[in-house]
Amino acid sequence: MKHGEGSGTWWGPLFGAHAATWAETWEGTQGWGTPVYTHVLDQAQVGPGTNLLDCGCGAGRFVRLAAERGASAAGIDASRELVEIAAKQNPEADLRVGDLKALPWPDDAFDIVTGFSSFQFAEDHAGALAEAGRVSRGDVWVIIPTRLDKSAIPQVFAALMPLLPSKARPILKRSGMYALSAPGALDKALTTAGMTPRSDETIGATTVFADAAAAVEAFLSAGATELAVQHSGQPAVATALHDALTPFSGEGDQVSLPGWFRVVQAR
């Protein structure tokens, strides 16, 4: 486990370990965040003539949704495996492997830049946000998890904390899924990056899986989960996930994971 060489070095291989499963589950047609994606597409008025960049594009679902509206979309992600999947699904898009703190595009290259649950994974949050602002001639849309105490996914991941290597836990707080979710954290990073919010909304999005087995499979494809598997073994991690998902199982064993996301439009 290495850290300090950029978020690409840290997270890219972890998310790439099960890239195909991630793409099929979290970024499938019934995957994570559809209401959030739709909200940003509508509010940003993405359509023909829009040139946008998605930071942390993963397997390219948002890139595809933007292209379906007529936009010219580009994307960057730390995981080579996820970018390869995104490229197959979006052959016309400019998709690259790289780090959010050093975007390989010139100043003012895009009309808008988006980051769906991605900027918090950067080692230097303000630096990554400033880079996004540098390449955007318009707004930067920052989406992070919020209302963690009421959201299901944070509760499931909390069950994995004892299974992670001890030296990884403080790193995950600085550069991980919820690193910008603490009160004031994102606001401070935006201010340091020289950016000012223009709108700030909270959008709900529930992720649904057919049953607990499908949900466990999806969670096993996440970067933090892969770190736990490497340290504690897949059987222990799968058991912890199954137990943590039990409160969210309903009729027919369907698993529903309510969540909320802060959507900030900044410039």
Describe the structure.
The protein is an alpha/beta fold and 267 residues long. Helices cover 41% and strands 18% of the residues. The strands form two sheets. A seven-stranded mixed beta sheet has the order 3-2-1-4-5-9-6, sandwiched between helices. The protein has a two-stranded antiparallel sheet with strand order 7-8. The protein starts with 6 loop residues before the first helix and ends with a strand.
List keywords for this structure.
267 residues, alpha/beta, 7-stranded mixed sheet, two-stranded antiparallel sheet, 12 helices, 9 strands, globular, disordered N terminus
Low-confidence runs of at least 5 consecutive residues: 1-8
The fraction of residues in strands falls at 15-25%
Major sheet strand order: 3-2-1-4-5-9-6
Derived structural class: alpha/beta
Order of helices and strands, N to C? HHHEHEHEEHEHHHEEHHHEE
Helix content, binned percent: 40-55%
* Major sheet details: 7 strands, mixed
The count of DSSP E runs of length 2 or more, i.e. the number of strands, is 9
Average pLDDT confidence is: 93
Number of helices: 12
Rg on CA atoms, Å:
17 Å
Characterize the overall form: globular
Cα distance spanning the termini: 35 Å
